[in-house]
Amino acid sequence: MNRRSFLGLLGAAAAGTALAGCGFADAGQTGERLVTTARLPKPFRVPLPVPPVARPVGTGATRYQVTQRVAHAEILPGLRTEILGYDGIFPGPTIETRRGTPVVVRHRNELSVPTVVHLHGGHTPHEHDGWPLDLVLPVGNKREWATHHGTGDRADGERDYRYPMAQRAATLWYHDHRMDFTGPAVYRGLAGFHLVRDDEEDALPLPRGDRELPLMICDRAFDEDGSFAYPALDQEMRSVPGVRGDWMEGVLGDVVLVNGAPWPVHEVDAARYRLRLLNASNARRYRITMTVPGKPDLPLTQIGSDGGLLAAPVTHQAIDIAPGERFDVVVDFSVLPVGTEVTVVNGLGSGGTADIMRFHVVRKARDDSRVPAQLSSVAPLTPPAGAPLRTFRFSRGPVGDHRGWTINGTSFAPGGALADSRLGEVEVWRFVTDVHHPVHIHLDPFQVLHRNGRDPGDYDGGWKDTVDLRPAEIVDVAVRFTDYAGRFVMHCHNLEHEDMAMMATVRTIN
Ligand code: C2O
Ligand code: CU
Ligand code: CU
Q1: What is the 3-state composition of the chain as percent helix, strand, coil, each rounded to the nearest 5?
Q2: Is 12 left (phi over 0), alpha (psi -120 to 50) or beta?
Q3: How far are the Cα atoms of 55, 191, 297, 391 from residue 259, in angstroms, in the given order?
Q4: Beta strand 419-422 with 503-509: parallel, antiparallel or unpaired?
Q5: Which of 138, 204, 286, 322 is the most exposed place for a label (fewest CB within 10 A)?
Q6: Taking every pair of C-alpha atoms in the chain, what is the biggest distance, in angstroms?
Q7: pLDDT tens digits for 192-216?
């Protein structure tokens, strides 16, 4: 039987468990909502956690060790949630590295299923990029997975991921990327920040220290006992990919977590803060605004995108952020009186998903930071006349003999490639959608050229590695791969779509 031939089959068979969809999709979303049955806290009571920064092992600050294991976290007050965690925490430890200093991250898999680690936004050779079939097998559990599907490189229990870090300062993140099972693995906790810093950025007078906050935003739903609810066909994540039929368009939770806490609150100085926003949700998109009672919303000054600093800051009243995307923004709380509560609101949510978190301005403070009018330089990627134009259609389609998601009518086949791209050459890639698809390309960032035949949209600026497409849109991007010849992937970052085959191999050639 084909590895995907169960898809949909089990959809009917598994119906009738505790999970329930509420039968409508949220505005601006492609996906189906789950309903939490656990007791939820009131919003803005739980303090915002900030993930610990990983300490290097040994001397030289270039080696890190992360152990993937099952743990129990108190996400909802008074309840325990079983998570799959990098070092047993969710989000995982933040790895901070510097441009030009290569690092090795050794991942040890103490879980019961194989894993794959991908550094999203990393400029990384094939062997270390987290090819979806390059498995890290569970420690001491080699036999069982020896005949598992597909071809790839298997590491027994541990694997060293080598990151050259020859790239600009940027907000990256690492997460699981195992073929067919990325959705449940990330949902259960396998995600963390990886920040790259460099001298150029350090020289800017941006907010730093406690006034720089990475914010991982994601939605989840919980069963009554506090466990994560996820409508996987195969709850053991062993052999059957995908989710039950109702959730095929994407799994939406009804609780918003920031850094793993439900609708948290954070006390701030009346000063500027740098917020590194990451949407780590499986399928949910957000429209982020900062509301202040009785006053206009606080503007969000964008300083960076997926691939690091913009050339110049851009001020937004709202930011739309799709799964996989990052927006680096500065907000200025100094214009507000002490005591003000600033709520981070989601204009695309309803009920529990209309709120994200809250900042409470608690004290006056000195602030030497500012946002310079020029931040960096971003050379435009200009496709030469006659540059290759490749069109990729993202649409619902058959996967084997069942329903799934396809690119140009094909489902992910590790052996074949949908593009052979020459290193160093600028190409135009055209994405076309049926419903929402956040499209992500590995290896190198790209630049948006056109959206629906016009100029790029408000959120398309700078170096991107993930671009959000709404239903029936056409987006052209300029792509240029560099340095590493080999096999990489591009895919939809709606993780249910990705697991249900909306992924393609890209071959880079010398
Ligand atoms: Cu964030 Cu291919 O992944
Ligand atoms: Cu990636
Ligand atoms: Cu998609």
Answers
A1: 10, 45, 50
A2: alpha
A3: 19, 10, 23, 36
A4: parallel
A5: 204
A6: 66
A7: 999 999 999 999 999 999 999 999 9
Task: Identify whether the C-beta of residue 465 lies closer than 8 Å to the C-beta of residue 439.
Answer: no
For residue range 337-388, list pLDDT tens digits in order. 999 999 999 999 999 999 999 999 999 999 999 999 999 999 999 999 999 9
CA of 5 from ligand 3 middle (Å) equals: 20
**Number of the ligand closest to the Cα of 494:** 3
Separation of CA 113 and ligand 3 centre (Å) = 25
Q: How remote is the CA of residue 10 from the centroid of ligand 2, in Å? A: 30
Give the DSSP H/E element, type plus range, for residue 143.
Answer: helix 142-145
β-pair partners for 309: 304
466 CA closest ligand 1 atom index: 1
CB 276 within 8 A of CB 319: no
Average per-residue pLDDT for the chain = 93
List residues near ligand 1 (CB under 6 A).
118, 120, 175, 177, 324, 440, 442, 489, 491, 493
Nearest Cα neighbor of 221 from 18, 33, 83 is 33
- AA identity, residue 268: V
CA distance 234 to 294: 49
Across residues 36-64, what is the average pLDDT?
95
- For the chain, which domains are there? 209-364 (2.60.40.420)
| Residue closest to 325 by CA, chosen among 165, 461, 475 | 461
Q: How far is the CA of 348 from the centre of ligand 1 (A)?
A: 23
Q: Give the separation between CA 302 and CA 310, rounded to whole angstroms.
A: 8
- Nearest one of 225, 220, 224 to 258, comparing CA atoms: 220
Residues 6 or more apart whose Cβ sits within 8 Å of residue 122: 129, 163, 167, 172, 194
Q: How far apart are the CA of 308 and the centre of ligand 3, in A?
A: 24
Burial of 388 (0-12, 13-18, 19+ CB in 10 A): middle
Q: Edge to edge, what strands does the sheet with 446-451 contain? A: 402-407, 389-399, 426-433, 474-480, 446-451
Q: How many residues does the chain have?
A: 510
Interval between CA 440 and ligand 2 midpoint (Å): 6
Quote the Cα angle for 341-288-23, to 5°: 110
Please list all protein residues whose beta carbon sits less than 5 angstroms from ligand 3, which is an ion. 437, 492, 494, 497
Instruction: Determine which residue's CA is closest to atom 1 belonging to ligand 1.
Output: 120
- Based on the number of CB atoms within 10 Å of its own CB, is 435 exposed (0-12), middle (13-18) or buried (19 or more)? buried
Nearest atom of ligand 1 to the alpha carbon of 442: 2
